[in-house]
Write a structure and sequence with these properties.
The chain is mostly helical and 240 residues long. The protein contains eleven helices and no strands. Helix content is 81%, strand content 0%.
């Protein structure tokens, strides 16, 4: 519990956490508000309404980056040595970071749903644009789970790579650059991290994506692999 409490304190005491949360709210608020307000009713019906519910892909960047910072801040600020002196079982520290990352992902997801539904759906309602309730629940559930997993993925990848800049750049490559490679691979490409996450979140207009359940299982498997690898490497290699 002391390790978990310590990691929670580190999370909330760093200004970057609040910058990322605030940045996500601003970006998503602008996206939801502009899409719901500026597009015509014809454009908003059907697929475009679902695109509004999924939100901008930048939300993944915010939550992944937060997870990456949870793991790599210790090494960037050279506090890892003291952390592991206090808690010699290094894997416990990584596990605590993973749990804190999941909790942070839940908070970010709730904030996303609040701003997306509170702003975007209220505008659609005022414009008499129908939104299927079951579809909204499915998409919001997928997006929320995806945000939690993306944060955990960032923690795991950061534990493996340790370098903050390298981790963030690698994450951006995974979620954006490799999507082009995935498209070239057809069905096999749907099992790439970004594609499986898109399937989990219920991305529309891409019929080749995995289902939400399958996408969640695949992306969750990536998270587990990197989490375990991060624990093993943190326990066995030199810290400094």
């Amino acid at each position: 519990m002391n390790v978990l409490r310590s990691e929670l304190l580190k999370l909330v005491s760093v200004r970057t956490t609040w910058f990322l949360l605030g940045g996500m709210l601003v970006v998503e608020g602008l996206y939801a508000g502009l899409v719901a307000s500026l597009l015509s009713e014809e454009q908003l019906r059907g697929r475009d309404v679902s695109e509004l519910l999924v939100g901008t892909p930048l939300i993944t960047v915010f939550v992944f980056t937060l997870g990456a910072l949870l793991s790599t801040n210790e090494f960037r600020h050279r506090t890892a040595d003291s952390t592991f002196i206090i808690t010699p079982q290094r894997e416990r520290v990584v596990a605590a970071k993973l749990l804190v990352g999941a909790l942070a992902g839940i908070v970010f997801a709730l904030e996303f749903i609040a701003i997306n539904a509170g702003l975007g759906l209220s505008i659609l309602s005022n414009r008499d644009v129908p939104v299927d309730g079951d579809t909204a629940v499915d998409i919001y559930t997928g997006v929320a789970v995806g945000m939690v997993l993306a944060c955990v993925f960032g923690v795991g990848l950061g534990a493996v790579l340790r370098n903050q800049v390298v981790t963030v750049v690698a994450g951006l490559a995974v979620f954006f650059v490799l999507r082009g490679v995935a498209l070239l691979l057809g069905d096999a490409g749907t099992y790439f991290p970004a594609e499986s996450l898109a399937g989990l979140q219920g991305a529309v207009g891409e019929d080749f994506l995995l289902s939400q359940v399958t996408g969640g299982l695949v992306f969750g498997a990536y998270c587990v692999v990197f989490a375990i690898a991060g624990m093993v490497l943190t326990r066995t290699r030199e810290i400094s």
